[in-house]
Amino acid sequence: MEDNPFRESDLSLRNHPESCVLVIFGATGDLTHRKLIPALYNLAADGDLPAGLRVVGFARREKDDEVFREGLKELNKEVSRQGHDEDLWEQFSQSVTYHQSTFTDEDGYATLKEKLDEMEKDGASPNRLYYLASAPEFFDDILLNLKKAGLNKSDTGWCRAVVEKPFGTDLATAQHLNEVVNDVFPESETFRIDHYLGKETAQNIMVLRFANHLFEVLWNNRFIDHVQITCAEHLGMEGGRGGYYDKSGAMRDMIQNHLLQLLSLIAMEPPTDLSADGVRDEKVKVLKSLRHFKSAEDVGQSVVRAQYTAGTLNGTEVSGYRDEDRVNPDSVTESYVALKIMIDNWRWEGVPFYVRMGKRLPKKGTEISIHYKQAPNVLFNAAVGAEAMPGNVLVIRIQPNEGISLGMRSKRPGPAATLQPVKMDFNYQTSFGKSSPEAYERLLLDAMAGDATLFARADEVETAWEYVDQIEDAWHKSTNPPKMAEYPAGSWGPKEADELFEQDDHGWRRL
Ligand code: BG6
Fold first, then answer.
1. Which of 57, 59, 387, 503 could form a disulfide with 28 if both were Cys (CB 3.0 to 4.6 A apart)?
2. Is the CB of 200 under 6 A from ligand 1?
3. What is the pLDDT of residues 8-42, one digit of tens each?
4. What are the residues whose beta carbons fall under 8 Å from the beta carbon of 121, sequence distance 6 or more?
5. Span 29-56, mean pLDDT?
6. What is the pLDDT of residues 155-210, one digit of tens each?
7. How many of the other CB atoms lie within 10 Å of CB of 218?
8. Three-state DSSP class for 463?
9. Left (φ > 0), alpha (ψ -120 to 50) or beta: where does 228 sit?
């Protein structure tokens, strides 16, 4: 048999990650402890970390290198997907140091520059990757101070910025932040993180569509009835999260970014090439084609917002949203959103995209389901007078249990022509024998490689905000705002969300 060069599919489509000094602003925060450092440690465990990489944690609290490393180690033990190996940790953590300063103190940046220059003299890479993982109100200060200290440019290596979410709270603030970022770093060196794009299955959407002719030819309004995107979470407002969340809500926290990104990947046209701009040009086109609403009443017809009330989750009683820690008892912030999105372009005319996300739902899981139209009801069921069967459903499980399944009908063995639903299932774990890397692992490597394909471009973020702003305005600025619905914690959301479906035999798919 001829050797198949693609059998292992080791088609390296990416640039090579380069060594650098990674400076993390907000180094004592949750994101650094739970996501960034464990991601770097996992990469080190797999031997994927560029040699000589150094990490400098920048934060306000008094600490020395040792105390900083100890704190990181404790969390790494808890969350690393590789498990914790003491020898490897010792080796890895030697590359991590701490720099104490407030984000507003210019001197702190001058001393950071001295430290980085010193490291470079000692053989560290001249490349610098600045990761803004602080609270978003400090993004402006950090960026401007990097510029003032001359840290945004170098004659010997590259300088890049990774900006965490939330990227603005509406169009105006996102535009402002884009101006500030792009005054300090060119767009080509700016990496706006949306960690959903780093999830293995999200990356697989383009492969499923554009490397399998079978699906792509059926990927349009002739064959697809509707699409559903669901992100369900168990979590409520644990760990003081209410302080941030109550100012944000489900629409800004997850729909504007993660779920509209997934929708763009599902709905986009094939890009002309796999370059960052080739892909992002197509995603922006989708966002620009989202049908806007005509009035607050129109928003009320297509968008449902809700808060959870007290309920039972996995046998435990939990409080309602308004009784959560750091949440305003009169809060009008939504912990759940469901909406029907129409895309006004040739491919998707008439195909609703139903998108929902909620906190305190019975299960954690994110999935996309493509619901095909029904087969003509002229044979099997019709023969016995039964109703038409629902169409095929293609399910892309983003998490957990990553995989793809196709729901079909099959004849049950036996003399009668009895039909029964069956599934063809592809599961990552069984097919590849290993768990998927964490999203941050891939995204950090891509930023080190200068590949922005899986990061949001300025116009992408702004176009998504434009869409979301009209809904937020209807909720918070109109004289006749659509009402806030309720659902008990541990349930699948408010009944109003079911009413988004026009046809009685359609409804949300159970995860
Ligand atoms: C974050 C949101 O961006 O994504 C959180 O701020 C949410 O509210 C989280 O819980 C979900 O991420 P994941 O990867 O656990 O699905």
1. 59
2. no
3. 444 454 569 999 999 999 999 999 999 999 999 99
4. none
5. 95
6. 999 999 999 999 999 999 999 999 999 999 999 999 999 999 999 999 999 999 99
7. 15
8. helix
9. beta
Q: Which atom of ligand 1 is nearest to the CA of 366?
A: 16
For residue 211, the SS3 value is coil
Q: Are strands 311-313 and 316-318 parallel, antiparallel or unpaired?
A: antiparallel
pLDDT of 503 reads 75
CA nearest to 46, candidates 437, 446, 454: 437
Question: Is residue 5 over pLDDT 70?
Answer: no
DSSP category for residue 373: P
**Alpha carbon of residue 73 to chain centroid:** 26
Secondary structure (3-state) at 478: coil
| Coil, helix or strand at residue 453 | coil
Mutate which of 30, 229, 237, 258 for ligand 1? The one with the most ligand atoms within 8 Å of its CB, which is 258
The beta strands (E) that lie in 144-276 are given as 159-163, 190-192, 224-232
Contact (Cβ atoms closer than 8 angstroms) between residue 326 and residue 246:
yes
Annotated catalytic residue 258: yes
Q: How far is CA 496 from CA 10, 274, 337, 338, 499, in A?
A: 47, 40, 11, 9, 5
Return the H-helix or E-strand segment holding 465: helix 458-476
* Mean pLDDT of the region 483-499: 97
195 CA → ligand 1 middle, Å: 9
| pLDDT for res 81 | 86
Question: How distant, in Å, are the alpha carbons of 202, 264, 281, 446, 471 from that of 194?
Answer: 11, 13, 17, 13, 21
The residues facing 426 across adjacent strands are: 404
For residue 247, count CB atoms less than 10 angstroms from its CB and return exposed for 0-12, middle for 13-18, buried for 19 or more.
middle
CA distance 7 to 373: 34
**Ligand 1 centroid from CA 238, angstroms:** 13
232 touches 308 (CB < 8 A): no
The pick from 247, 253, 357, 443 for probing ligand 1's pocket by mutation, whose C-beta has the most ligand atoms within 8 angstroms, reads: 253
Mean pLDDT, rounded, for 295-323: 97
Q: pLDDT tens across 353-368, in order?
A: 999 999 999 999 999 9
Atom in ligand 1 nearest the alpha carbon of residue 233:
10
Q: Which residues contact 290 (CB under 8 A, 6 or more apart)?
A: 341, 342, 343, 344, 467
pLDDT tens, position by position, 59-92: 999 999 999 999 999 999 999 888 889 999 999 9
